[in-house]
Design a protein that fits this description.
Length: 349
Protein backbone atom coordinates (compact mmCIF):
# COMPACT_ATOMS: atom_id res chain seq x y z
CA UNK A 1 0.00 0.00 0.00
CA UNK A 2 1.35 3.40 -0.94
CA UNK A 3 2.01 6.10 1.62
CA UNK A 4 -0.41 8.38 -0.24
CA UNK A 5 -3.24 5.84 -0.05
CA UNK A 6 -2.66 5.29 3.67
CA UNK A 7 -2.62 9.02 4.35
CA UNK A 8 -5.85 9.56 2.39
CA UNK A 9 -7.66 6.58 3.90
CA UNK A 10 -5.91 5.35 7.04
CA UNK A 11 -6.80 2.00 8.61
CA UNK A 12 -9.68 1.73 11.05
CA UNK A 13 -8.60 0.29 14.42
CA UNK A 14 -11.36 -0.72 16.81
CA UNK A 15 -10.50 -0.91 20.52
CA UNK A 16 -12.96 -3.04 22.48
CA UNK A 17 -12.84 -2.08 26.15
CA UNK A 18 -11.37 1.34 25.40
CA UNK A 19 -12.24 2.80 28.80
CA UNK A 20 -10.52 0.00 30.72
CA UNK A 21 -7.05 -0.10 32.21
CA UNK A 22 -5.34 -1.67 29.17
CA UNK A 23 -7.76 -0.36 26.56
CA UNK A 24 -7.36 3.27 27.66
CA UNK A 25 -3.57 2.98 27.46
CA UNK A 26 -3.85 1.49 23.97
CA UNK A 27 -6.15 4.35 22.99
CA UNK A 28 -3.58 6.91 24.20
CA UNK A 29 -0.91 5.19 22.11
CA UNK A 30 -3.06 5.00 18.98
CA UNK A 31 -3.96 8.67 19.37
CA UNK A 32 -0.35 9.54 18.55
CA UNK A 33 -0.55 7.98 15.07
CA UNK A 34 -2.35 8.99 11.84
CA UNK A 35 -5.04 6.30 11.98
CA UNK A 36 -8.78 6.10 12.48
CA UNK A 37 -9.87 4.74 15.85
CA UNK A 38 -13.25 3.58 17.09
CA UNK A 39 -13.17 3.41 20.87
CA UNK A 40 -15.86 1.06 22.19
CA UNK A 41 -16.81 0.72 25.85
CA UNK A 42 -19.77 0.46 28.22
CA UNK A 43 -18.44 3.44 30.15
CA UNK A 44 -17.56 6.97 29.02
CA UNK A 45 -14.24 7.02 27.19
CA UNK A 46 -12.05 10.14 27.51
CA UNK A 47 -10.41 11.12 24.22
CA UNK A 48 -6.72 12.05 24.49
CA UNK A 49 -5.95 15.70 23.88
CA UNK A 50 -4.02 16.74 20.76
CA UNK A 51 -4.64 13.41 19.06
CA UNK A 52 -3.22 12.85 15.58
CA UNK A 53 -5.70 10.02 15.10
CA UNK A 54 -9.33 10.56 14.18
CA UNK A 55 -11.18 9.05 17.15
CA UNK A 56 -14.86 8.12 17.32
CA UNK A 57 -16.29 7.00 20.65
CA UNK A 58 -19.04 4.38 20.78
CA UNK A 59 -20.72 3.62 24.10
CA UNK A 60 -22.21 0.14 23.98
CA UNK A 61 -22.75 -2.96 26.09
CA UNK A 62 -21.40 -5.64 23.80
CA UNK A 63 -23.20 -8.40 25.70
CA UNK A 64 -26.45 -7.11 24.19
CA UNK A 65 -27.57 -8.74 20.89
CA UNK A 66 -26.40 -7.02 17.72
CA UNK A 67 -23.99 -4.64 19.41
CA UNK A 68 -20.82 -6.43 18.33
CA UNK A 69 -21.63 -6.23 14.62
CA UNK A 70 -22.06 -2.47 14.77
CA UNK A 71 -18.97 -2.03 16.93
CA UNK A 72 -16.58 -3.72 14.49
CA UNK A 73 -18.21 -2.80 11.17
CA UNK A 74 -15.52 -1.90 8.63
CA UNK A 75 -12.63 -2.66 10.97
CA UNK A 76 -9.15 -3.33 9.62
CA UNK A 77 -7.83 -4.10 13.12
CA UNK A 78 -9.64 -5.09 16.32
CA UNK A 79 -7.85 -4.94 19.68
CA UNK A 80 -9.76 -7.08 22.16
CA UNK A 81 -9.14 -5.55 25.60
CA UNK A 82 -12.45 -6.51 27.21
CA UNK A 83 -12.44 -7.55 30.86
CA UNK A 84 -14.96 -8.75 33.42
CA UNK A 85 -15.08 -5.94 35.96
CA UNK A 86 -17.08 -7.23 38.90
CA UNK A 87 -15.44 -6.76 42.31
CA UNK A 88 -12.05 -5.44 43.28
CA UNK A 89 -10.09 -7.62 40.86
CA UNK A 90 -10.35 -8.50 37.17
CA UNK A 91 -8.97 -12.01 37.68
CA UNK A 92 -10.25 -13.36 41.02
CA UNK A 93 -13.65 -14.54 39.80
CA UNK A 94 -15.91 -17.27 41.08
CA UNK A 95 -15.53 -20.62 39.36
CA UNK A 96 -18.30 -21.09 36.82
CA UNK A 97 -19.51 -17.47 36.90
CA UNK A 98 -21.68 -17.23 33.74
CA UNK A 99 -21.25 -13.46 33.45
CA UNK A 100 -17.46 -13.85 33.40
CA UNK A 101 -17.74 -16.58 30.77
CA UNK A 102 -19.97 -14.33 28.65
CA UNK A 103 -17.44 -11.49 28.69
CA UNK A 104 -14.22 -13.47 28.33
CA UNK A 105 -15.34 -16.22 25.95
CA UNK A 106 -18.80 -15.34 24.65
CA UNK A 107 -17.74 -11.95 23.31
CA UNK A 108 -14.76 -13.50 21.54
CA UNK A 109 -17.16 -15.93 19.86
CA UNK A 110 -19.42 -13.04 18.88
CA UNK A 111 -16.49 -11.07 17.49
CA UNK A 112 -15.11 -13.95 15.43
CA UNK A 113 -18.55 -14.96 14.14
CA UNK A 114 -19.22 -11.38 13.06
CA UNK A 115 -15.89 -11.04 11.27
CA UNK A 116 -16.32 -14.45 9.59
CA UNK A 117 -19.79 -13.48 8.35
CA UNK A 118 -18.45 -10.20 7.02
CA UNK A 119 -15.58 -11.98 5.27
CA UNK A 120 -18.02 -14.37 3.60
CA UNK A 121 -20.08 -11.47 2.29
CA UNK A 122 -17.10 -9.35 1.31
CA UNK A 123 -17.77 -6.65 3.90
CA UNK A 124 -15.23 -7.75 6.50
CA UNK A 125 -12.57 -5.08 6.40
CA UNK A 126 -12.36 -1.35 6.12
CA UNK A 127 -10.79 0.32 3.14
CA UNK A 128 -7.66 1.54 4.84
CA UNK A 129 -5.45 -1.46 4.27
CA UNK A 130 -6.27 -1.85 0.61
CA UNK A 131 -5.12 -5.48 0.69
CA UNK A 132 -8.38 -7.42 0.79
CA UNK A 133 -6.90 -9.54 3.57
CA UNK A 134 -8.90 -10.64 6.62
CA UNK A 135 -9.03 -8.19 9.52
CA UNK A 136 -6.43 -8.31 12.27
CA UNK A 137 -7.50 -9.33 15.78
CA UNK A 138 -5.13 -8.90 18.72
CA UNK A 139 -6.09 -10.34 22.09
CA UNK A 140 -4.97 -9.33 25.58
CA UNK A 141 -3.97 -12.72 26.95
CA UNK A 142 -2.15 -13.60 30.15
CA UNK A 143 1.03 -15.51 30.95
CA UNK A 144 -0.99 -17.26 33.66
CA UNK A 145 -2.71 -19.27 30.91
CA UNK A 146 0.26 -21.63 31.19
CA UNK A 147 -0.99 -22.64 34.64
CA UNK A 148 1.39 -24.71 36.75
CA UNK A 149 4.99 -24.71 35.60
CA UNK A 150 8.24 -26.02 37.01
CA UNK A 151 10.75 -23.46 35.78
CA UNK A 152 11.74 -19.95 36.81
CA UNK A 153 11.43 -18.29 33.41
CA UNK A 154 8.44 -18.52 31.05
CA UNK A 155 9.18 -18.27 27.33
CA UNK A 156 5.94 -19.41 25.70
CA UNK A 157 6.94 -23.01 25.05
CA UNK A 158 5.28 -24.29 28.24
CA UNK A 159 2.29 -26.65 27.94
CA UNK A 160 -0.92 -24.94 28.97
CA UNK A 161 -2.35 -26.35 32.21
CA UNK A 162 -4.43 -23.53 33.73
CA UNK A 163 -6.29 -24.26 36.96
CA UNK A 164 -8.00 -21.00 37.90
CA UNK A 165 -11.27 -20.09 36.21
CA UNK A 166 -9.94 -16.77 34.92
CA UNK A 167 -6.92 -18.48 33.36
CA UNK A 168 -9.13 -21.16 31.77
CA UNK A 169 -11.42 -18.56 30.26
CA UNK A 170 -8.48 -16.56 28.89
CA UNK A 171 -7.03 -19.69 27.29
CA UNK A 172 -10.37 -20.70 25.78
CA UNK A 173 -10.78 -17.27 24.18
CA UNK A 174 -7.21 -17.40 22.88
CA UNK A 175 -7.79 -20.81 21.29
CA UNK A 176 -10.95 -19.59 19.59
CA UNK A 177 -8.97 -16.72 18.05
CA UNK A 178 -6.12 -18.92 16.84
CA UNK A 179 -8.60 -21.39 15.35
CA UNK A 180 -10.20 -18.52 13.41
CA UNK A 181 -6.76 -17.51 12.17
CA UNK A 182 -6.16 -21.09 10.99
CA UNK A 183 -9.52 -20.99 9.20
CA UNK A 184 -8.47 -17.80 7.41
CA UNK A 185 -11.30 -15.57 8.64
CA UNK A 186 -8.99 -13.32 10.67
CA UNK A 187 -5.30 -12.68 11.14
CA UNK A 188 -5.05 -13.26 14.84
CA UNK A 189 -2.43 -13.24 17.56
CA UNK A 190 -2.50 -13.26 21.34
CA UNK A 191 -0.16 -11.17 23.47
CA UNK A 192 0.21 -12.99 26.77
CA UNK A 193 0.95 -10.22 29.23
CA UNK A 194 2.89 -10.44 32.46
CA UNK A 195 1.78 -8.63 35.66
CA UNK A 196 0.72 -5.12 34.67
CA UNK A 197 0.81 -1.98 36.74
CA UNK A 198 0.97 1.72 36.68
CA UNK A 199 -0.27 5.18 36.09
CA UNK A 200 1.19 8.03 34.08
CA UNK A 201 0.18 11.67 33.83
CA UNK A 202 -2.47 10.98 31.16
CA UNK A 203 -4.08 7.92 32.79
CA UNK A 204 -7.88 7.78 32.73
CA UNK A 205 -8.70 4.29 34.09
CA UNK A 206 -8.28 2.73 37.51
CA UNK A 207 -5.51 0.19 38.03
CA UNK A 208 -6.76 -2.72 40.18
CA UNK A 209 -3.41 -4.51 40.23
CA UNK A 210 -1.22 -5.28 43.22
CA UNK A 211 1.17 -2.32 42.87
CA UNK A 212 -1.53 0.36 42.75
CA UNK A 213 -3.55 -1.42 45.45
CA UNK A 214 -0.55 -1.26 47.78
CA UNK A 215 0.06 2.36 46.80
CA UNK A 216 -3.51 3.26 47.77
CA UNK A 217 -2.99 1.61 51.15
CA UNK A 218 0.23 3.51 51.73
CA UNK A 219 -1.45 6.80 50.85
CA UNK A 220 -4.22 5.96 53.33
CA UNK A 221 -1.62 5.32 56.03
CA UNK A 222 -2.36 1.59 56.23
CA UNK A 223 0.28 -1.15 56.63
CA UNK A 224 1.21 -3.05 53.49
CA UNK A 225 0.48 -6.75 54.05
CA UNK A 226 2.14 -9.63 52.23
CA UNK A 227 1.09 -13.30 52.22
CA UNK A 228 4.75 -14.33 52.16
CA UNK A 229 8.18 -13.11 53.24
CA UNK A 230 8.58 -10.72 50.30
CA UNK A 231 10.90 -12.93 48.29
CA UNK A 232 8.26 -13.87 45.69
CA UNK A 233 9.24 -12.24 42.41
CA UNK A 234 7.07 -10.65 39.74
CA UNK A 235 7.87 -9.42 36.25
CA UNK A 236 6.18 -6.00 36.37
CA UNK A 237 5.35 -4.29 33.08
CA UNK A 238 4.06 -0.72 32.93
CA UNK A 239 0.78 -0.37 31.05
CA UNK A 240 2.24 2.27 28.70
CA UNK A 241 4.73 -0.33 27.46
CA UNK A 242 1.84 -2.74 26.92
CA UNK A 243 0.15 -0.18 24.70
CA UNK A 244 3.32 0.19 22.64
CA UNK A 245 3.49 -3.59 22.30
CA UNK A 246 0.04 -3.64 20.68
CA UNK A 247 1.00 -0.86 18.29
CA UNK A 248 4.11 -2.82 17.32
CA UNK A 249 2.07 -5.99 16.83
CA UNK A 250 -0.23 -4.31 14.31
CA UNK A 251 2.73 -3.55 12.06
CA UNK A 252 4.13 -7.08 12.25
CA UNK A 253 0.96 -9.13 12.23
CA UNK A 254 2.07 -11.39 9.37
CA UNK A 255 5.03 -12.49 11.48
CA UNK A 256 2.93 -12.85 14.64
CA UNK A 257 -0.34 -14.38 13.44
CA UNK A 258 -1.43 -17.83 14.47
CA UNK A 259 0.17 -18.10 17.91
CA UNK A 260 0.66 -16.51 21.30
CA UNK A 261 3.58 -14.32 22.32
CA UNK A 262 4.83 -13.54 25.80
CA UNK A 263 5.31 -9.88 26.68
CA UNK A 264 7.26 -8.81 29.76
CA UNK A 265 10.39 -7.05 30.95
CA UNK A 266 12.52 -10.12 31.61
CA UNK A 267 13.22 -8.99 35.20
CA UNK A 268 11.76 -10.69 38.24
CA UNK A 269 11.70 -8.27 41.17
CA UNK A 270 11.03 -9.35 44.80
CA UNK A 271 7.67 -7.94 45.85
CA UNK A 272 9.08 -7.01 49.23
CA UNK A 273 11.53 -4.68 47.49
CA UNK A 274 8.75 -3.23 45.32
CA UNK A 275 6.49 -2.50 48.28
CA UNK A 276 9.37 -1.02 50.29
CA UNK A 277 10.05 1.34 47.39
CA UNK A 278 6.36 2.26 47.26
CA UNK A 279 6.28 3.14 50.96
CA UNK A 280 9.39 5.27 50.53
CA UNK A 281 8.03 7.17 47.55
CA UNK A 282 4.69 7.82 49.22
CA UNK A 283 6.48 9.08 52.34
CA UNK A 284 8.68 11.33 50.20
CA UNK A 285 5.70 12.77 48.34
CA UNK A 286 3.42 13.26 51.36
CA UNK A 287 5.93 14.21 54.03
CA UNK A 288 4.62 11.45 56.30
CA UNK A 289 6.45 8.50 57.85
CA UNK A 290 6.61 5.33 55.73
CA UNK A 291 3.90 2.81 56.57
CA UNK A 292 5.09 -0.60 57.82
CA UNK A 293 5.44 -3.67 55.64
CA UNK A 294 4.21 -6.83 57.37
CA UNK A 295 3.76 -10.52 56.56
CA UNK A 296 0.35 -12.02 57.37
CA UNK A 297 -1.31 -15.41 57.10
CA UNK A 298 -2.65 -16.00 53.58
CA UNK A 299 -6.45 -15.95 53.17
CA UNK A 300 -8.32 -19.11 52.21
CA UNK A 301 -8.82 -17.90 48.65
CA UNK A 302 -5.06 -17.55 48.04
CA UNK A 303 -3.86 -19.64 45.10
CA UNK A 304 -0.61 -21.48 44.42
CA UNK A 305 0.26 -18.85 41.82
CA UNK A 306 0.28 -16.18 44.55
CA UNK A 307 3.45 -17.76 45.96
CA UNK A 308 5.24 -18.58 42.72
CA UNK A 309 7.92 -16.32 41.27
CA UNK A 310 7.50 -15.32 37.63
CA UNK A 311 9.90 -13.93 35.05
CA UNK A 312 9.01 -13.63 31.39
CA UNK A 313 11.33 -14.14 28.44
CA UNK A 314 9.82 -12.03 25.66
CA UNK A 315 12.83 -12.28 23.34
CA UNK A 316 10.73 -13.91 20.60
CA UNK A 317 8.25 -11.02 20.52
CA UNK A 318 11.06 -8.48 20.66
CA UNK A 319 12.87 -10.13 17.75
CA UNK A 320 9.70 -10.25 15.66
CA UNK A 321 8.61 -6.65 16.27
CA UNK A 322 11.54 -4.62 17.61
CA UNK A 323 9.50 -3.75 20.70
CA UNK A 324 11.17 -3.33 24.05
CA UNK A 325 9.97 -1.86 27.36
CA UNK A 326 10.90 1.78 27.91
CA UNK A 327 9.54 2.51 31.39
CA UNK A 328 11.97 1.48 34.14
CA UNK A 329 10.49 0.10 37.34
CA UNK A 330 11.69 3.06 39.37
CA UNK A 331 10.20 5.48 36.87
CA UNK A 332 6.90 3.60 36.75
CA UNK A 333 6.62 3.40 40.54
CA UNK A 334 7.30 7.12 40.86
CA UNK A 335 4.62 7.96 38.26
CA UNK A 336 2.16 5.65 40.01
CA UNK A 337 2.73 6.98 43.51
CA UNK A 338 2.59 10.58 42.27
CA UNK A 339 -0.73 9.88 40.57
CA UNK A 340 -2.14 8.48 43.82
CA UNK A 341 -0.66 11.00 46.27
CA UNK A 342 -1.80 13.93 44.12
CA UNK A 343 -5.41 12.79 44.43
CA UNK A 344 -5.76 12.24 40.69
CA UNK A 345 -6.65 8.59 41.19
CA UNK A 346 -9.94 9.63 42.75
CA UNK A 347 -10.94 11.07 39.36
CA UNK A 348 -10.65 7.79 37.43
CA UNK A 349 -12.83 4.69 37.49
Amino acid sequence: MSTTTQAENPPLIVVLGAAGFVGSAVLRELAQHPVRVRAVSRRPTPVPADARAHIDVVRADLTEPGRMAAAVAGADVVIHALAFLEGASTWRIADGDPAAERVHVGLMRDLLRTLADNTDTGTGTGTGTGTGEPPVVLFTGSVTAAGDFDKDVLDGTEPDRPKGYYERLKLEAERLLLAADAAGTVRGACLRLTTLYGYSAASTARDKGIVSTMTRRAVAGEPLTMWHDGSVRRDLLHVDDVARAFWAAIGYIDALRGRHWLVGTGDGVPLGDVFTRVTGLVAEQTGKDPVPLVSVKPPEYAEVSDFRSVRVDSSAFRAATGWQPRVTLDEGLRWTTQFCTSGRETTVS
